[in-house]
Structure formats: C-alpha cells, structure tokens
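Work Package 4 report. The design task specified in the project plan requires that, given a folded chain encoded as structure tokens, an amino acid be chosen for each position. We show below one input record used in the internal validation round.
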C-alpha cells in the first residue's frame, strides 16, 4: 500500500499471538495484491477495466465497495470511490485493512493491540490494566512537534486517522472537480471507534475545508476531530477535549 504498518501487541498466549500476527501480515499483503491500482493484474485493476465482475472477485472487494458507497452517502459525495474517472477505493482500503488486522490479533486473546498503518491507528483494549493507549498527532506546521495527544482512556476501541498535505503533498482530490482539493486546511485528524470510518471522514472533511468540514464532523455520532489550517488556526469538535491527555 506504499506505506509501513507496525504492530504493538500486549498479553495473550505467545503461540496464538504469533500465529495471529503472521496471519494479519499475510492478509495485509494479500489485500495489497487484490486492491492495488498500480498492478495491472490485480483484481481491482481488472474490475476497473471490465475484465471481472464484482461477483468474480474475492468477497472482500464487494465488502469494500459497499463500505465506500456508504461513505459516499454519509459524506454527500465528498468521499469518492473514483479517481480520474476510474474505480479507486484506496481511500478506504488502508483503514479497513488495518482495522481488520487489529481485530484478528485481538481475537487471539490479547489484552491490547495497536496497529499503525502509515500513521493511522486502530487501538483495541489497553497496553496494561492501569494505562490507556495514547497517540500523538503530528503538527503539520512544525516538523517533529505534536499538535495533540489522544487518549483511549475509558474505551476499548478507538481509532485515530489524519488526512493532510504535510507528508504526501496535495494528494487529496475534490470529487466535484477531479483535481487536488484546494482548501484552507493542512490537516484533519479524526477520532472514532473504527479506523475504516475515521480514515474516510478525515479525507472527506479535508476536501470540504475547515468551516464545512467541522460542521459536518460535529454531526457524526461518536466522532471527534482536530482541524489545522494553513494559517495555524486549530479548530476542534466540542467533545475532543475529553479525548486529549
């Protein structure tokens, strides 16, 4: 997927954890092969060219397309499954795959797991009985600095996803124009139970811009967010403060 995945696993039977970790890594590689837009022979590429139907692809393809369609509906089209006129669900695949990997490992009996896919993180359980998971949010305007620290205290499931221009430049597309999204934002970080959705909502909100994006994020259940503008203005949803620490 063009990025690095890392795993932090706490507790659980060592043999079961090792097996689950190996399965999760193998599954991430398989997902990359199935959904790659750069490999002509991937199922996604063949589907986009009309050489396969959805029914002829692995079941995960239909699952991702259904999730993407729901993201398009909830965001009123600001999240899109298409790029330059072609089918491209990569905006949802990474978060979905990382969340699936975390849940696979959690099922092995661990008391805590953190899966980080290119800076987007799915947290389940806790690292120990007296300490919650904590995730630093990079400051896009001050390399090496943190804009905030998100805490998973009080919940067993939390995800943190960021969309912006600091790491990959202007790669987020405005679905209305098909060109790079030009807004007042440099980064949007979304905090929600599921990384699948947190990743989608961060991308959609960035394309909207700070005013519309913040208002829309406020309307979503169980979602908090931190938005940073190019003018170094920080805007937050009302409930975000309860997640900082």
């Amino acid at each position: 997927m063009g990025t690095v995945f890392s795993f932090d696993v706490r507790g659980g039977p060592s043999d079961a954890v090792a097996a689950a970790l190996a399965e999760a890594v193998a599954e991430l590689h398989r997902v990359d092969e199935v959904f790659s837009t750069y490999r002509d022979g991937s199922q996604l590429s063949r589907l986009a060219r009309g050489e396969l139907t959805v029914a002829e692809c692995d079941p995960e393809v239909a699952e991702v397309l259904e999730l993407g369609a729901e993201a398009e509906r909830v965001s009123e089209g600001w999240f899109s499954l298409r790029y330059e006129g072609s089918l491209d669900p990569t905006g949802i695949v990474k978060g979905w795959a990382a969340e699936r990997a975390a849940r696979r490992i959690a099922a092995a009996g661990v008391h805590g797991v953190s899966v980080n896919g290119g800076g987007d993180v799915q947290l389940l359980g806790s690292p120990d009985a007296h300490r919650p998971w904590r995730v630093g949010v990079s400051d896009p305007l001050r390399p090496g600095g943190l804009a905030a620290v998100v805490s998973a205290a009080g919940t067993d499931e939390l995800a943190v996803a960021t969309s912006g221009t600091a790491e990959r430049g202007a790669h987020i597309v405005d679905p209305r124009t098909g060109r790079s999204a030009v807004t007042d934002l440099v980064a949007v970080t979304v905090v929600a139970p599921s990384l699948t959705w947190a990743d989608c909502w961060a991308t959609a909100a960035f394309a909207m811009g700070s005013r519309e994006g913040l208002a829309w994020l406020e309307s979503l259940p169980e979602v908090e967010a931190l938005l940073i503008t190019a003018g170094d203005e920080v805007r937050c949803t009302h409930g975000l403060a309860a997640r900082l620490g």
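The mean pLDDT is 94. Validation will be extended to a larger panel in the next phase.
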